[in-house]
Amino acid sequence: MKTAIVLGATGLIGKHLIEQLIQCNDIGKIIAIARRPIDFGTEKVVCEQVCFDRLTDYADVFQGDILFSCLGTTKKQAGSISLQRKVDFDYQLQVAQIAADNKVSHYFLVSSSGANAQSRNPYLKMKGQLEDEISKLSFDKTCIIQPSLLLGKRDHFRLAETLGAHILPIVCKIPGLDKFRPILGEQVAIKMVKISHTQTYGKRTFKQDELF
């Protein structure tokens, strides 16, 4: 039986991942990483409350077979691009480094469509830089997921995503733009769990149109 670790367990993708993993017969334990205690209603899920500014103090928490890294915030929520980078880049990379040191063999990163370390867009540049750093770590299997606009029920309102959810499906009917259509967070979670059962080695990157 395997142990799965979910970073960002209360987020849009993370919560659906937990639901999917609970149903997996080969997963005996799910470690949900969170800032506050959460009851997931089953003994299969263990919530580990951590302080992200002292991640090295919690190194023992990040031990298992698979790490799903779904942590993320927005510039508006964080307050600035530098504070957003602290969550989306610094925390995720530090957790990945700890997990690699702990011999976690399989790593999943939820990145973004268009991620590119050379991008002029600060967000896409940050995501691309994170992908590059993750690729240097010693995981046996690394999987990078690049979804476009994520749809689903969130704990907080995001105006840009709400508008995009109405506009993008129409725009993406234009030939050549269908690969940018929005996707449900649940669909991404389902795909990630499927990949976790089939990826045998090396690094794989799944772009938006491969996630449906």
UniProtKB/TrEMBL annotation:
GO cellular component, one term: cytoplasm
InterPro entries: NAD(P)-bd_dom, NAD(P)-bd_dom_sf
GO BP annotations, alphabetical order: import into nucleus
Pfam families documented for this protein: NAD_binding_10
Residues in NAD(P)-binding domain copies: 8-149
SUPFAM superfamilies: NAD(P)-binding Rossmann-fold domains
Name this polypeptide is given: NAD(P)-binding domain-containing protein
Organism the protein comes from: Pseudoalteromonas luteoviolacea NCIMB 1942
Taxonomic path: Bacteria, Pseudomonadati, Pseudomonadota, Gammaproteobacteria, Alteromonadales
